[in-house]
Each structure stands twice: as C-alpha cells, then as structure tokens.
User: Fold these one by one.
Assistant:
Number 1:
Amino acid sequence: MELRQLKYFTTIYEEGQFIKAAQKLHVTQSALSQQIQLLEKELNIDLFDKQKRKVARIVEATPLGHDFYKDAKKIVDLGERAKSKIMDKGQQAPMIRFGTYQLLNKKQIIATLEKIRQINTNYDFKIIEFENPVEVQKALVDNLIDCGISILPILNSKDIDHVYLSEVSMCILVNTHHPFNALDTLNLENLSMENWIEIDHKIHPIYNDVGLFCDKSGLSNRKIVQEIPSLELLCHFVNIGKGIAFAPSYINTSDFPNVVKKKIATPFITLEQVLCYKNSDRKIFSKVKIPLGRSKDSVS
C-alpha cells in the first residue's frame, strides 16, 4: 500500500467521479483505475460499488470503502502536513544562537549582530541572555550557543577562539549634590570614606576585579551599603543619594537626573569585550570586525 494510492482513493471518494479525480491529480483515468485495482487487490475488498459504476456510471463507495476512507484521509492529511513542515524548514535560514549577558551594552549587541549579518547574510539569530560573561563562555563549551559576547580572559582557550570587539573603561557614578560633582576626575585614595553601591559579583565578575584593585589601592575597607542586580538599580540608588558606584562607562544615566559620570584619575580596570566562538566555527565568525577597533568608551 502506497501513500499515492490512498491519495488517489480519497480524491475519487471526494470528487465522486474518476474523471474529475484524474484531472485534479493530473494523471490519466486509466492510471487512476489501475492503482485503485491494485489497492483493492491488496486489501482484498471492493472500495467502490462496481455494479453501480458499470450500470449507472455512479461512483459510490461500498460500506467497507466508507470505513476505509476515514482512516485513509487521516493518513493522507498527515503526509501532507509532514511534507509541508519539512519543506518550510528547508526554506528557513540557518539559525545562529547568540549569547549575551545581563549588563551588556545593547549598542554593542546590535553592532555585533549587524556585522555578523553582513558577512553571513543567510543566517537568522536566536538571542539567549545569560547572567554574566563567564556563563556565556560556559554555554559555548556546552554547545548551548554558537557564539556570544563575553570579556577577556577566555577561560577555555583550547576550545574557544575570539575576535576583539571593544575596550570599555570604568567610571564612578556620583549624585549631583555630592561635593565630588565639582571635580572632573576622581582619585581612588580620596574615596575611602564614601558609601558604595555595587553590582552583585555573581552578576558581573568584573566587580571581583574591582574589589581586588580597590584593596591594592587603599580602599580595602570600602563601605558597601547596597548590593544590587542591575545597572538601573545602581543608578537609582546613586540618584537618591544612597552612595557612589563603579560602573561601565557605557551606562545610560539619562533617566536619572541626579546622576553624573566621573572619570577615574588613576589607571583602572577596563573591560575587553570579545566575540567568542568555537574553534571549529572560525570560518563563520573570524571575519567579524567592529569598525571602532580598540577605542575606549568615553565618559561624558
């Protein structure tokens, strides 16, 4: 029994005539009749009333033919759906699973996606957000994503390669009513008595490095009064005068009128953002170059 035979049978059943069914199926009437005969022989039943067809030229299913139609129709419809589904998938563009992390600058995401799209025009993207840059690298090793934006260092350089994207400096957020607002730059040694708002280290590992750097710079006893999970909350608590905060220089403070960004006078930690991918995918991603090169984000 072939799917083609079932389709022939159901079409004859629905059209009520062999000639109309043959026209709809784009086959000859004799070929149609031959396939129905083969199907009836295999089933060892008559699907159509031969006497009525011979005498009155009426195509009418037998009682067993009526019963068989119900199941045959289900099989034909299922076959059509399966065919349509696989054809649709075949026409879809290949998907790149692209990893980001919570505190990542949205402009960096857009610029990187556009650059990948320019080089690989036939790809679509599925964006997956992780808690922090390290989780992006882990997801790459675990084959949960195809590429993603992270920061140096690369923890598993044996399996992961990268393309440099940008260097992001750190700044200090200050309330406009704070005396520091009158200064263009801030020296770390002058900040030991301040209250600090800080991102949870689990959200962004850079704050572990910030803590170590502060310890070496005489700020080992910083008073952290509030730990929060997002840059928006960081700005909020600085905005209400709760304290000051380290933040990536790309942070958007436009919704917080009492927050200003200040440069750090002494050499400080920078974030080196990279596009990570598996070594086996080097041909797809190695040509991605962001036009800005190794320029630092400015603090305004």
Number 2:
Amino acid sequence: MDESRLELKVGALVLAALLGAFTVLVLMGEVSFGGGKTVVVDFGHTGNVVKNAPVKLGGVIVGKVEEVELLPSRRDDHGDPMPVKMKLTVSKEVYDALRTDTGVTVSSVGPLGEAYLELWPGSRQEAYDPKVAVRGTDSPRIDVVSNRLAKFLDAASSVLENDPEALSKFVRGIGGLTNTVDGVLTENRDEFKTLATELSAAAKDLRILAATARTQMEPGGKANALIDDAAATAKLARTDFPELSKQAGVALGGLARVSGQLTEEDGQKVKTILAKAESMSVKGDQIATRADRMLAKLEAGEGSLGAALKDPVVYDELKTLLTDVRKNPWKLLWKD
C-alpha cells in the first residue's frame, strides 16, 4: 500500500509539473490554439528578430513570427536587396483590422532587450490583401552607421593631417561669414523692413484674391457661371457641329457640281461681266458725286434755278400761278 501511494504521489507531481510547463508555454505565446491568420512581411534585414519573436499591436502581443525565410537573390523594385521573408501569425480580430497600408517595424524592449515586431493596421478603407506582401520598415543597423562614421572620421583625419590648420580656417571662415551677414543686415535694415512690408502686403492681396476666386467658383459665382456657359457651349457645339459639317459638305458638293459644268469660255464671260459691272459702279459713283454737287449749289442758291428756289418773291409768284392754273385751266389754252 505504501508503495502504491508513493507512486500516485510521484505521478501527480509529474502531471502537475507538465501542466505548469504547458501553462507557461501558453502564456509566453509558444503554444496557441487555432484561429491564427498568416501575414507575409518582406525585410531587407531581420533586425535581430528571430522565429517565435512576439508580434505586438499597440504594445500588446497579438501573434508571433512563425517563420523566417532567407532569399539571397531577391531584390525590390528599386534594385535593392530584400532577402528576408517573414510569416507572422496574428489573431483573427487583428487580421480583420488590417488595411492595404499596413506597416510593420522592428522594435525592442529597451536598448538591449528582446527584438519584436510592432504592427500598425493602417488607415485606408481597403482591407488587407493576403496575396500582397507587406513591406516592413528596416531597423537602423548599428554596423552600417558605425562603418559610415568610421569612414567620415578617417576622411576628417586625412584632411587634418594634410592641412593641420584646416579646422581653424573653417572656423575663421564661418566667423567671417557670420560677420558679413550681420553687416549686410545692419546696413540694409530699412530695405529688409520695406521688403518684409511688401511681402506682407502681397500675402494679404493673395489671400484676398484666393477668397475672391473661391467666392466666384462657388455656385452662383461669375466664374462658376462662365464655366457652366462654356460647358453648355461645348455641349451645343458637339451636338450641332456634325449637322453643320453635313450641310457644309452638301453645299461644297453642289458648288463642285456647278463649277464642274463651267468651261474656260464661260470663265472669260464671267470675267467680262464682272469688269462691266465694275465700270458701271464707277460711273454710278461719278453720277452720284455730280448730283451731290448740283444739290449743294441749289441749296446754296447758285444759278437760275437755285436763285429761284431761294428768292421768296419768285416762290410766291409761282405759287400764285399754280393756284390760278388750278382754278382756271382754260388759260393754258386761251390767252386774253
């Protein structure tokens, strides 16, 4: 009996240890139960992110790095190396919240802490397309920065070795430039004030112009009405132009048929008729000019007829004569 109880106690202890280890694995995200969705992310460098590294959203763990794949020969659209592909497993709720502009960055818990991936779901309306991989943001590489800094320090050291006074010359040049700028500003202070005033006035005018343009472009404004009229004119032209073109084609066709029946002799006759018409027009102008001169002389009282028209005595006698003739027409045939 004692041996049986001892075996039961050992078995219970082992089972409790296994349950505790399993609970710890679940809490650490090493073990998950279904419902996960896969998101593919491309990187130029892992940023020290390894398999099973946590994936966080807003600092909260929502998944993990399921797989890290190396593709040495792969490059992006710009020709830069992009050899790392990561497959992330996230919860269904987070996956449904992802958009087409989803972002993934490499972060760490403190300067020397564990590296993980921070997920940004995006802000666009279109949902995330699982067929398109997300381009992750590569973390700054300390080795690359250190290498570039070392090259810069080497170049600076080489310059100082060749010209020990280069640094002092540089400082003196900066000081001289500062003094020059200060002198220019001091000497032309009034001009700069005037320039600032003019720029302020120009900005004010520009704001007024923008406000006026905005008012004119609003419904009911003149510019808006002009645009509407232009659109209506364009629409009318599109509607009427084919009919006008058709009528013009018919007219040109009729003219071609008429002109096709004319011979060279008919052309000479037409030219002769036109020449005669031109001559008659010139003569008509001359006659009209003479008539104008005659009427001017009559109005001025020149000549016998003009004097008769302008003399009131002659006018009264003519009037009396005409009145007598109307009353006694027989006097035209018989004289006392």
Number 3:
Amino acid sequence: MGFLEELKEGKVSEDIKRIAAENAIPLPLKEQFEVLAFLMDDPIVEIADKASLTLMDMPKNSVISYLSGRDANPKLLKFYAEYALENKDYELIEVIVKNPSTSDSILKMLAEKGDEKIVDIVVSNQIRSIADHKILEAVVANPHSSIRAKALAKEWLRLYYSNKNEVEIIETVEEMAEEGALEDIEEIGDLEELETLEEVEEVKEISAAELKERLKNIYNLTWEDIKRLPIPAKIKVALMGSKMHRAILIRDPNKTVVDAVLESPKLTEDEIEGYSKMKSLPQDVVRKIAQAREWTKNYQVRLNLVKNPKTPTQYSLSFLRTLREKDLKDVAMSKEVPAVVRREAQRILNQKKKIKF
C-alpha cells in the first residue's frame, strides 16, 4: 500500500502528516502533489495551512509538469488557478487553461477576474470558450478584456443566440453535461462499427426536448441527430460526452469539433488506439494523433498509424524503427501502405538479418 492510500485510510500519525505537509517525505512527483492536496483538507488547521504553503513553494517546473497532465487533481487545478490569478503568473495560467481537465468554472473565474493578458489566454482556448457561453459572457463583462477578446466573444455569442431553438438545444446539452448525464451511456464494443454510419445531406429541425431524449438513448443516435446540433453543443458533447459520442464526432466536418474530441479529458488510450486504425478519418485527424507524444508512446497506436494509409509518410517512417520484427514483416507485405513505407520496412528487416549473422 502506498503512502497516499495509508493517508486516506487514516493509518498515518499526526507527526508523520506534519512532515508530509512540508513535503519532507521522498515520494514520486505526482504523489507529492496528491498528498499535499489531501492534507489541504486536514482537520488540524496547522497541517492544512502548511500543506497549502508548501504547494505555493513547490518548484515552478514541478508545478508545470504536474498541472500539464490530464489526470491533474481538480482541487489543485483550482488552487493554482487562484494562486496564478492573484500573482499574475501568466505561464501557469496558460498551462491550466490548456489542460483539458480544467473545469469550465475555473475558466469562467479567470475570464471574470483576470487582467487583459489572462483573458486573452482564456479566449485563445477557442474550443473551451465556445463550449460554454458563460465563459464568453464573462469575457464581455470583464472591464479588463481587450477589444479583440470582447469582439471574439461577442461574435461567438452572436452565433450562439442566432436561433432560439439552437439556444435551447445548447442550454440543454450544457445542463446535461453539468449533471453528468452525457456520461451515463452504455459503452460500445468496437469503434469500427461506426464506419458504416452514413451522413445525411439535409437535416430537419428538432426541438431541444426531443434531442435531449435522443442524446440519452445513444443507440438511437444517428448522423442526422449529430448534424442537428449547433457547433457549441457539438463541442460540449465532444468534451463531456461518452465514448460513443466521441466516436461519431471525431469525423465531424468542423475542425474545432474534432479538436474538442481529441482534447476531451475523458478520452482514453483505448479510444486513440481505435481512432488510429480508422481509415475513414480525415488525414488531418490522423496527423494530430501521430504528432501527440502522449499517444504515440503506446506501441499499438504506432503500429496502427504505420498500417493506416491516411498517416502522413514522415510519421510512418519515423515509427518503423520502433516496430517488432513480426510487425515489420506485415508492413513490408501490406498493399495498403505507401510503397516507400513498405520498402523502408523491408530495408530495416534486411539490416536486422545482417546483424544476426
């Protein structure tokens, strides 16, 4: 059992907790932050206060490294957002705003209370700003917002309020996201099942109430239903919805919606494995997956990308040297990958044979 688990189960003495609140116990970086986050709520005020002070004194590079992770503790994202806001630490603000796990309430707080530069950082995260009109309204209301930031926010709000029925749909989706209702969906088996879905050219208007019911019953959700969603609602569903929602929206024609899928804090490695082998995805989407180190650390993702004809050649070639011999042989024989990739796979295999002899 790790130290954090013992702490949570009440198996750590007060004296040890005091030492931990000073970060004087050798632990991995992530666990250091998690322990301090837990101790911030300790019933002994001195321990709680010391943990908070220790968090403020943590090395900047360690804080940035921790807050950059999708699994950063929501409590610490809020803590450091408030700290950075008060101290005008723009570097830290940028890291927090870029983290997909940062809540809308934190972004709204920064948009409401930030100075011009902080508001600009929030607005630069177009995906999250468009997904919640409350953030946009905070930007417009903030007297420190730049003319450019207000203009962008007003333009996005204009799109938001352009259609009364769309407003109801967007608000319905936002409400479902806040309630966690978008997550309460059965998972699908194989993402490739969605390859057979057909897009429709024309869509009929639908009421917010009807769409809400269709969103709840994911197995009845069609391409037509998805195309009915206004862009802000699609972004919200992409960020907060289920695996099935993301699997549909990853092929949306709007690049901002697709980016929202890839930035979803709920996106899993298994999903990326599935996307990386989907030949129906646009090349831009495949390229973004290939460019993300956090995903290409996964061997199966690299292999899928090499075998996917949509993967830009330079990425396929760079991944080849990391493949096992058996997989290299498959690539060298595949007629789906570009000839240059097949030849390079064969060349690497020949080199390996020479080394063996």
